[in-house]
């Protein structure tokens, strides 16, 4: 770890020690022992700041609580990990973690009706309205990850034995949500391009109708799947679903927060997004948005009454289990939102960077793109069995040689040991970093005498 990075963490930790002293004092009153502790802490911070400025010093804190490593991946490396790229926190979100880390910090000003989406200080209620507007839906709730959005909708609509149409590339959490509700997933087959089409969805619905005598109760399709990040015809599929009067759930785990999403234009009845995957938010976080038509059902309030106490909790929403995100998770999501709302407008530039990197990989003879090409997303799946994997067969480190070479140049996030088929994500990287990554792959190729064709780097993508 770069010593300035190390010392920055140490400074933050030292400030937290001062903060803890202040937490232990009486309101606005400090005794001599506390004053001494604060003074010592300030002197320590000054020394650490001098080390940061000069780039000097030695690591003094290597573990948190004695056992937890300091995570400095984002400070010391270029991280191309496929699911982490769009979840990097903004500086504002990191500040929110510091200020709102206590468990129920969001509940300081909770008043009747005692529900998360009604809290106005901090401005949680307006945030819910902004989220709904962000994806052009009527009502939104924050949830502990996209999976809990799937779960809420499935729990509302699916009964035992009901069929739910999903993609053949559906995420496992969609399966689990349907299974928990007692339903049965029915997968739409892919075409020759590994895409889910509207026609194939219609055929699947007809097949289910003929086999069971009933229509599916829900169609749930990813805009971009997690395996290839191919773009599927969600708008056409939503139209087909509505022709059968079946509600449509738009899985925007890889879109909400990174590119514009218009739920009503798509024809979605439900929009689900992932905060920690695509909205620069702490985990677990996400969003579930719906229309005025479906809101009373998916956000229904409890009607149950205690048999002995006669207690009622009528304002609590059943599928939300009352309140969902609390503390720093929610406030971090809120703190990142202004930047997230702005960054979706830069999607075309993100795609250019993605294709630049993929073209750079394709320039190495033997590389192929397993995903759609040209790329329509920053997440991509590539096949290097024709070059890097050949080297791995003879290398003493086997497939880990590529990880070693990348790590030496400060690049992490590829699947360690993978040299055949693997994924990467360029989202949020600067052009400087993207070019650096391409140059690094070319340097590795040169080192192992692989052919690079920079003039014709789009061959062999399929």
TrEMBL record:
Requisite cofactors: pyridoxal 5'-phosphate
Keywords (A to Z) from UniProt: Protein biosynthesis, Pyridoxal phosphate, Transferase
Positions bearing N6-(pyridoxal phosphate)lysine: 277
EC annotation from Swiss-Prot or TrEMBL: 2.5.1.73
Chemical reaction(s) catalysed: O-phospho-L-seryl-tRNA(Cys) + hydrogen sulfide + H(+) = L-cysteinyl-tRNA(Cys) + phosphate
Superkingdom of source: Archaea
InterPro entries: PyrdxlP-dep_Trfase, PyrdxlP-dep_Trfase_major, PyrdxlP-dep_Trfase_small, Sep_Cys-tRNA_synth_arc, SepSecS/SepCysS
Residues annotated to bind pyridoxal 5'-phosphate: 146-147, 251, 274-276
GO terms of molecular function: Sep-tRNA:Cys-tRNA synthase activity
PANTHER family in the cross-refs: CYSTEINE DESULFURASE, O-PHOSPHO-L-SERYL-TRNA:CYS-TRNA SYNTHASE
Summary of subunit composition and partner proteins: Homodimer. Interacts with SepRS.
Protein role: Converts O-phospho-L-seryl-tRNA(Cys) (Sep-tRNA(Cys)) to L-cysteinyl-tRNA(Cys) (Cys-tRNA(Cys)).
Family: Belongs to the SepCysS family.
NCBIfam families (UniProt xref): PRK09331.1 (NF006810), SepCysS (TIGR02539)
Name this polypeptide is given: O-phospho-L-seryl-tRNA:Cys-tRNA synthase
Origin organism lineage: Archaea, Methanobacteriati, Methanobacteriota, Stenosarchaea group, Methanomicrobia
């Amino acid at each position: 770890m770069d010593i300035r990075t190390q010392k920055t963490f140490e400074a933050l930790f030292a400030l937290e020690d001062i903060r803890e002293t202040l937490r232990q004092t009486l309101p606005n009153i400090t005794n001599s022992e506390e004053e001494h502790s604060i003074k010592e802490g300030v002197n320590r911070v000054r020394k650490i700041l001098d080390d940061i400025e000069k780039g000097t010093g030695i690591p003094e804190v290597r573990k948190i609580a004695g056992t937890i490593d300091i995570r400095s991946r984002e400070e010391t490396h270029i991280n191309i990990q496929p699911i982490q790229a769009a979840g990097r926190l903004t500086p504002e979100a990191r500040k929110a973690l510091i200020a709102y880390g206590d468990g129920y910090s969001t509940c300081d000003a909770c008043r009747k009706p005692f529900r998360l989406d009604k809290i106005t200080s901090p401005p949680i209620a307006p945030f819910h309205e902004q989220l709904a507007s962000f994806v052009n839906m009527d009502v939104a709730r924050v949830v502990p990850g996209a999976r809990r959005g799937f779960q809420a909708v499935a729990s509302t609509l699916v009964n035992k034995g009901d069929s739910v149409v999903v993609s053949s590339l559906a995420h496992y959490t969609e399966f689990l949500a349907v299974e928990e509700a007692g339903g049965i997933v029915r997968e739409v087959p892919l075409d020759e391009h590994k895409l889910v089409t509207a026609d194939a969805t219609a055929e699947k619905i007809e097949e289910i109708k003929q086999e069971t005598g009933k229509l599916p109760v829900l169609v749930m399709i990813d805009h971009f799947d997690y395996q290839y990040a191919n773009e599927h015809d969600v708008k056409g599929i939503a139209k087909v679903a509505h022709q059968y009067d079946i509600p449509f759930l738009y899985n925007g785990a890889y879109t909400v927060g990174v590119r514009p999403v218009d739920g009503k234009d798509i024809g979605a009845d439900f929009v689900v997004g992932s905060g920690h995957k695509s909205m620069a938010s702490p985990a677990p976080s996400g969003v579930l948005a719906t229309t005025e038509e479906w809101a009373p059902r998916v956000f229904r309030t409890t009607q149950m009454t205690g048999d002995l106490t006669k207690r009622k909790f009528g304002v609590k929403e059943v599928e939300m289990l009352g309140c969902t995100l609390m503390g720093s998770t929610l406030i971090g999501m809120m703190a990142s939102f202004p930047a997230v709302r702005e960054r979706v407008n830069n999607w075309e530039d993100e795609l250019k960077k993605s294709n630049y990197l993929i073209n750079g990989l394709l320039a190495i003879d033997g590389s192929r793109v397993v995903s759609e090409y040209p790329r329509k997303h920053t997440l991509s799946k590539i096949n290097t069995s024709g070059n890097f994997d050949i080297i791995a067969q003879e290398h003493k480190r086997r497939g880990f040689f590529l990880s070693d070479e990348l790590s030496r140049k400060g690049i992490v996030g590829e699947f360690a040991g993978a040299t055949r088929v693997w994924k990467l994500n360029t989202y949020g990287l600067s052009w400087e970093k993207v070019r650096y990554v391409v140059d690094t792959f070319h340097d590795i190729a040169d080192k192992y005498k692989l052919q690079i064709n920079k003039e014709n780097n789009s061959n062999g993508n399929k």
